[in-house]
Design goal:
There is one protein chain. The chain is mainly α and 248 residues long. It has one domain. Helices cover 78% and strands 0% of the residues. It has 9 helices and no strands. Helix 4 packs antiparallel against helix 5, helix 4 packs antiparallel against helix 8 and helix 5 packs antiparallel against helix 7. The longest helix is centred in the N-terminal third of the chain and has 33 residues.
């Protein structure tokens, strides 16, 4: 694909209908994956010999925790593309991802606290993993608040892009925190370089739930970016033509 094609697809006018066609596919995939993953997690996966049935919250907790970090990295990547190439779509995509990233982080924190009470005897401990994940929530909220505090969209894009890129250093801190410091949080049960430390049924359910969270995040980000496009490009000719078509 030539560079001119990439620039064409980076145009909101071109990307808007493409996003509209993709949303139902990712939305239905998320719903199906979530149903299958929940069924495996609650009905098929065996009871853990140490944690009992309390461990089943990992099917939501792990998926949301993974997505909270992954979405921030992707948001930072879109921000870098905006700063490097000044593409409007990149800034809009970064803006669209922040609320869902914050939601995933909040779910990870809440489910982690609910898991921590029966496992560690406390809902919260200021260890490295929990604290760095909380900082991630503050970063998401900071990006959202900064954008709302600046009236000029282009200035807001640049300020939020810089904050996103600065904050991305927190993601490896979250990931490696259990290796770098002595924490209550257990180490990773899934690794690319070692065999999984859980039953295959548990791993399958957890990975399916992770895919459900991934597809959901894509569908919501695409839906939100379409709304952002209409709001920010409302004076453009393509938005006017779109509104004329809808009014017929």
């Amino acid at each position: 694909m030539t560079s001119s094609s990439w620039y064409r697809y980076s145009s909101p006018a071109t990307f808007y209908p493409i996003a509209g066609r993709l949303i139902p596919w990712f939305g239905w995939a998320a719903a199906v994956m979530a149903a299958i993953g929940t069924w495996i997690g609650l009905a098929i996966a065996p009871t853990d010999f140490q944690q009992g049935d309390a461990y089943r919250i990992i099917f939501i907790h792990v998926a949301s925790a993974w997505m909270s970090m992954f979405m921030y990295v992707v948001m930072a990547a879109w921000s870098a593309l905006f700063l490097g190439f000044n593409t409007r779509l990149s800034a809009m995509m970064a803006q669209a991802m922040a609320p869902t990233g914050a939601l995933m982080t909040l779910i990870a924190l809440v489910t982690g606290s609910l898991w921590g009470k029966p496992t560690w005897g406390t809902y919260w401990a200021w260890d490295a993993r929990m604290t760095s994940e909380l900082i991630l929530l503050f970063l998401y909220m900071g990006v959202i608040a900064l954008r709302n505090a600046i009236d000029d969209p282009r200035r807001a894009d640049r300020a939020c892009a810089v904050l996103s890129l600065v904050g991305v250093i927190n993601v490896p801190i979250i990931y490696y925190s259990v290796k770098w410091w002595n924490t209550l949080h257990q180490g990773s049960s899934v690794s690319l370089t070692a065999a999984p430390k859980m039953a295959m049924t548990m791993l399958t359910g957890m990975l399916i739930m992770a895919l459900a969270a991934w597809f959901y995040a894509i569908a919501v980000a695409l839906y939100r970016v379409r709304v952002i496009m209409l709001e920010r490009e409302r004076g453009s000719a393509w938005v006017g033509e779109l509104q004329e078509v809808k009014s017929r």
